[in-house]
Write a structure and sequence with these properties.
This protein is mostly helical. Among the domains are: about 35 residues, no CATH class; about 60 residues, no CATH class. Helices cover about 45% and strands about 10% of the residues. It has six helices and four strands, in the order αββαααααββ. The strands form two sheets. Strands 1-2 form a two-stranded antiparallel sheet. A two-stranded antiparallel sheet has the order 3-4. Helix 4 packs across helix 5. The two termini are about 25 Å apart.
């Protein structure tokens, strides 16, 4: 985990709803209890669906973020062995599949893309709706 991500997660944890025992939670209908309850996300697809909807973007899978992160690290010339360990791959070939062999023009495009993101952690914890921080508004 990067120090920037750690700071964001720490703010998220400190700003959470302390009446809930989860940092990321949502309200859903429990068929057994026949009522709406609050609970942790059981499925990455549900949290990604919620986040994509809030961001106003077409749904994409969580796995795409892993590929993107690996590609960005590769573009920054981080050794493939380090990327492999960060991603938790046993096999170097699995990491190579993630990286796809990126050309220099794609590296330049990713550098431009990266520069579009703010460097600092948001000063305030954004509003929380259904346990998901609304960083995107």
């Amino acid at each position: 985990m990067t120090s920037r991500l750690f700071k964001i997660m720490e703010k998220r944890f400190n700003g959470r709803d302390t009446t809930k025992k989860w940092v990321f939670w949502h309200t859903y209908y429990d068929r057994k209890e026949r009522r709406f309850v609050a609970g942790p996300f059981q499925d990455r697809k549900k949290i990604m669906t919620t986040l994509c909807k809030k961001a106003g973007v077409k749904y994409f899978r969580y796995h795409a973020l892993r590929h993107s992160g690996a590609s960005i690290m590769d573009s920054l010339r981080i050794p493939i062995g380090s990327i492999q360990r960060i991603l938790g791959h046993e096999n170097r070939t699995t990491t190579e599949i993630y990286l796809h062999s990126i050309s220099d023009s794609e590296r330049v495009a990713m550098d431009i893309f990266e520069k579009g993101f703010p460097e600092k952690v948001p000063p305030e914890v954004p509003p929380i709706v259904d346990g998901v921080t609304d960083y995107l508004q």
